[in-house]
Amino acid sequence: MIVVTGMPGSGKDEFIKVAKSLGWIDIHMGDEVRKYAKLNNIPSIDSEIGKFASKERQTYGKEIWAKRVWDDMRPGKNYIIDGLRNLEEFEYFKSKDTDLILIAIYTEREERLKRILRRNRPDDVHTHDELVSRDDRELSWGIGNAISLANYMIVNDSSLEEFKKRSRELLLKINKSN
Q1: Do residues 81 and 90 lie in contact, with contact meaning Cβ atoms separated by under 8 Å?
Q2: Distance CA 78, CA 74 (A)
Q3: Number of domains making up the chain
Q4: Is 0.70 surpassed by the pTM of this model?
């Protein structure tokens, strides 16, 4: 199993697309958060979903989203999970799969903002200040610590084609070693 982490807009979705093209089954932790938010009538706005995710972590433990994602998985599949946010989620997944590989994707903030604005998701941030607030929230959850534990890091600072090439090379290397 591979788990991917990185700040919003860093390129996790593009990395996942490459993994899917190589046969990996993708699971997005954010989809799980949005699913539960909808069930709880939370407005589909970044700040509201973020508050909901934080409240669930406070109520049920920092690894709650990892547990909920794990409950949706089937044994024996080749999963790549997007959206790890803290050490507790990492430790939970590691307890389920000792061969877990953590990949971090890094992109500087201004480039991330450009990408987020281009993708135009309704629950995304729309300004630099909103991105700073979202980054602060994710850092408060412990994402920086999770990034620091990565087995591999890809710096996403070039073209999309180059990033996809680097991603493919890394995934093929991981497949070869497993």
Answers
A1: no
A2: 10
A3: 1
A4: yes
Q: What is the pLDDT of residues 127-156, one digit of tens each?
A: 999 999 999 989 988 899 999 999 999 999
Residue 91, amino acid: E
| Tens-place pLDDT, residues 50-60 | 899 999 999 99
For residue 70, give the CATH number of its domain: 3.40.50.300
How far apart (Å, rounded) are the C-alpha atoms in residues 6 and 139?
Answer: 10
The DSSP-derived string for 39-83 is HTT--S-HHHHHHHHHHHHHHH-TTHHHHHHHHT--TT--EEEE-
* Sheet of strand 79-82: strand arrangement: 25-28, 79-82, 2-6, 101-106, 152-155
- Domain boundaries, position 151: 2-177
User: Which residues on neighbouring strands pair with residue 25, listed in sequence order?
Assistant: 79
